[in-house]
Amino acid sequence: MRRNKTLAAIQKPKATQSAALAVLLVMGGFAVAGPSGLLAWSENLRLLDEREAQLAKLQSERDTLANKVALLDPDHADPDMVGELLRSQLNVVHPDEVVISFED
Fold this sequence. Notes:
Strand content: under 5%
Distance between the termini: 98 Å
Shape: rod-shaped
Largest sheet: none
Number of strands: 0
Radius of gyration: 36 Å
Helix content: over 70%
Number of helices: 3
């Protein structure tokens, strides 16, 4: 009878320790192989570099468009920009101009 009590007293802490070890192993697994773990770190850095390059390209395009908008200000429009837009969008030319088209 005494032996059963001793065996039960030993098994309960072992079960608690085993459960704690299992929880720690699962947490360690997530820290290494989880979506934000060590193995995903290089992938996240690569995506960050791609997004920064894309952001730089978009900022360059935005600056170009902002420059065009400034040149087409109704109060003092740049005559060269207005002429370029007229020629490209309305297909108008001066009588003394020659149009050369390039075939693709």
